[in-house]
């Protein structure tokens, strides 16, 4: 199920602007990798290059390699649609489809891909909603619109929608930044459960969150304003937060930044 | 830490000066605007009749000006300058609203009043076959059929073209081609209907075709496409980008994302746009005169032979100039207004029904 990602010398551009430069790292399967760093250092951009969502932005382009179990995502003949089916994504703001019910939202990935058997659909929806710890809250109103749920429930609905297509990897772009502490806790517990089945990469601004949920942490930084973001270091979360090998990481984590 | 705790206020809030200890001030009662209106209308009528003005419009304008002036002056005297300015703005908005509503209300009043005289089941189900223009009788059936068919064909052609053009512009178009398409759509929006009619007429003459409902539809299509493109484009732009990204990130191909996520989200607005475009072309007369020729008989075939249409029928009956034909013209105008109004109601209904749901 879960797959390893090897990134080698990845550079991403918006038009002629270089957003991130020369990033190499390995994301281990069945683990949570957290990306931390100041705003604008390219964490989200880097995350979006991992399932080719970066190129959806006008002018977005990438150099370098992203290997998913030795297969290059940017190799010739690779269909971005297939890549995104394999590597799912959860966004910062909950974005359920407003025209669809809760059930249809979860079923959307399978239905619109055309790859499902009708009698299995209900099972998949239930399994995904259970997987996202949302089943008990919505099982009596599956036909109600998804936009009627609370923010935290909507975000779990989006996670259910993402895991319904059975991806290998789940990318999360600040999934809790728009949520209250209780909903955040629910999502963090969920991440802990999901890592048994998926490889998870999470971008977060909340250092405690990174310390709580992740196995490995990567610290990104800008060398100067207007310069591209770079990977400073990646290590076991415990070591990053107790004894990082780079001074800048320690400064950032302890709040003595700049 | 040397920063002070800013959540605690260091100095007490200064008390207001002693002469303004109360927050209340003298104010006009709530019914004051109504009183101003009554006074100014009375004065307007008085001045108008004293000066012997014939036109009620002059009476109304004088009353309106008096209303604005009286409200301002009275509020300045009783309240204060700021309140007076507020009242001035409010009065101006009301006066403008009434000025805008008067012609509309008068138009509907006259059309309903005069049109209802001959509008009945017979009028709606009979043509002008065998009826002399100067005599009463006859009906609008042939024109109604003509309008429905011509507008229907024009919609069937322009709605898909307009929708697809808008999808191209919003979802795919970049660079020179998209800019060129936008430019030409803007130019097309400004084409007078007679020019669209002449364009199709020149093609018709070159190809040796005969006048028919279809030719009229083609001219209406030219008028309708830019309206559909513009409104659909705006509606598609309103669809949040996050929904597109959410769909793409699920591994859904772009074309299915547009078909199943973007367009359903915007369908209410798109339908409204198409309906308003239909309402716009349903009232066009010039292309029908040139290309459909008009007829007194029922011709249900839009592809062959002359037809009539509601706006053309109105013009035709007005030209005859008899009492009976004027009545028919008014009744047909009422039918046209009701037709357009029904379309608008249907559009609103669809927009409400299809709007993204927020219920819990």
Automatic annotation (TrEMBL), chain A:
Domain named ABC transporter: residues: 5-247
Gene Ontology molecular function: ATP binding; ATP hydrolysis activity; phosphate transmembrane transporter activity
UniProt key word Translocase: yes
Annotated keywords: ATP-binding, Nucleotide-binding, Translocase, Transport
Keyword ATP-binding assigned: yes
GO cellular component, one term: membrane
A Pfam family per the record: ABC_tran
Official protein name in the record: Phosphate import ATP-binding protein PstB
Automatic annotation (TrEMBL), chain B:
Membrane topology: Multi-pass membrane protein
Domain ABC transmembrane type-1 residues, every copy: 144-347
Gene Ontology terms, MF aspect: phosphate transmembrane transporter activity
Residue ranges crossing the lipid bilayer per the database entry: 31-51, 57-76, 88-109, 151-170, 182-206, 212-229, 261-282, 329-351
Keywords, in A-Z order: Cell membrane, Membrane, Phosphate transport, Transmembrane, Transmembrane helix, Transport
Main localization, broad class: membrane
GO cellular component, one term: plasma membrane
Subcellular location: Cell membrane
Span list, region Disordered: 1-24
GO biological process: phosphate ion transmembrane transport
Family matches, as InterPro entries: MetI-like (IPR000515), MetI-like_sf (IPR035906), Phosphate_PstA (IPR005672), Phosphate_transprt_permease (IPR051408)
Pfam families referenced in this protein's UniProt entry, alphabetically: BPD_transp_1
Role, per record: Part of the binding-protein-dependent transport system for phosphate; probably responsible for the translocation of the substrate across the membrane.
Similarity comment: family membership: Belongs to the binding-protein-dependent transport system permease family. CysTW subfamily.
Xref: NCBIfam families: 3a0107s02c
Protein name, per record: Phosphate transport system permease protein PstA
Lineage: Bacteria, Bacillati, Actinomycetota, Actinomycetes, Kitasatosporales
């Amino acid at each position: 199920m879960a797959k390893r990602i090897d990134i080698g010398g990845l550079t991403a551009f918006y038009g002629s602007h270089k957003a991130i430069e020369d990033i190499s790292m390995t994301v281990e399967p069945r683990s949570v990798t957290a990306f931390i760093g100041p705003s604008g250092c390219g964490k989200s951009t880097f995350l979006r290059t991992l399932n080719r969502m970066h190129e959806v932005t006008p002018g977005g382009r990438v150099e370098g390699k992203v290997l998913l179990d030795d297969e290059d995502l940017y190799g010739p003949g690779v269909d971005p649609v297939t890549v995104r089916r394999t590597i799912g994504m959860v966004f910062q703001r909950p974005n359920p489809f407003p025209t669809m019910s809760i059930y249809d939202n979860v079923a959307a990935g399978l239905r619109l891909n055309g790859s499902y058997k009708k009698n299995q659909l209900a099972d998949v929806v239930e399994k995904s909603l259970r997987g996202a710890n949302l089943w008990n809250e919505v099982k009596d109103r599956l036909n109600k619109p998804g936009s009627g749920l609370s923010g935290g429930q909507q975000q779990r609905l989006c996670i259910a929608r993402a895991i319904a297509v059975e991806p290998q990897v789940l990318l999360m772009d600040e999934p809790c930044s728009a949520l209250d502490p209780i909903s955040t806790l629910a999502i963090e517990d969920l991440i802990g459960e999901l890592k048994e089945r998926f490889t998870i990469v999470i971008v977060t601004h909340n250092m405690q969150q990174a310390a709580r949920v992740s196995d490995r942490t990567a610290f990104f930084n800008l060398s100067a304003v207007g310069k591209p973001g770079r990977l400073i270091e990646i290590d076991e979360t415990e070591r990053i937060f107790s004894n990082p090998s780079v001074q800048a990481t320690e400064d950032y984590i302890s709040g003595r930044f700049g | 830490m040397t920063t002070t705790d800013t959540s605690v206020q260091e100095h007490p809030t200064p008390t207001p000066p002693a002469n303004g200890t109360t927050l209340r001030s003298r104010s006009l009662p709530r019914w004051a605007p109504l009183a101003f209106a009554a006074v100014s209308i009375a004065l307007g009528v008085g001045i108008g009749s004293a000066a012997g003005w014939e036109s009620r419009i002059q009476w109304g304008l004088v009353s309106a000006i008096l209303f604005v002036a009286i409200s301002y002056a009275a509020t300045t005297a009783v309240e204060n300058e700021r309140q007076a300015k507020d009242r001035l703005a409010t009065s101006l908005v009301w006066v403008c609203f009434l000025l805008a509503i008067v012609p509309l209300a008068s138009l509907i009043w006259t059309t309903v009043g005069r049109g209802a005289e001959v509008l009945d089941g017979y009028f709606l189900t009979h043509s002008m076959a065998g009826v002399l223009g100067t005599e009463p009788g006859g009906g609008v059936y042939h024109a109604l059929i003509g309008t429905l068919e011509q507008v229907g064909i024009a919609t069937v052609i322009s709605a898909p073209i307009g929708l697809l053009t808008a999808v191209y512009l919003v979802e795919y178009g970049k660079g020179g081609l998209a800019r060129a398409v936008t430019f030409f759509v803007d130019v097309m929006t400004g084409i007078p209907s007679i020019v669209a009619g002449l364009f199709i007429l020149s093609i018709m003459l070159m190809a040796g075709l005969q006048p028919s409902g279809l030719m009229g539809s083609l001219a209406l299509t030219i008028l309708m496409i830019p309206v559909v493109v513009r409104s659909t484009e705006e509606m598609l732009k309103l669809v949040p980008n996050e929904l597109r990204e959410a769909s793409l990130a699920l591994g859904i191909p772009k074309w299915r994302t547009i078909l199943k996520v973007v367009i359903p989200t915007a369908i209410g607005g798109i339908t409204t746009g198409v309906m308003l475009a239909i309402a716009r072309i349903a009232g066009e007369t010039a292309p029908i005169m040139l290309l459909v020729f008009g007829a007194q008989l029922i011709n249900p075939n839009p592809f062959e032979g002359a037809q009539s249409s509601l706006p053309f029928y109105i013009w035709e009956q007005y030209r005859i100039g008899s009492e009976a034909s004027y009545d028919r013209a008014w009744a047909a105008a009422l039918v046209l207004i009701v037709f357009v109004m029904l379309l608008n109601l249907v559009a609103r209904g669809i927009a409400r029904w299809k709007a993204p749901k927020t219920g819990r």
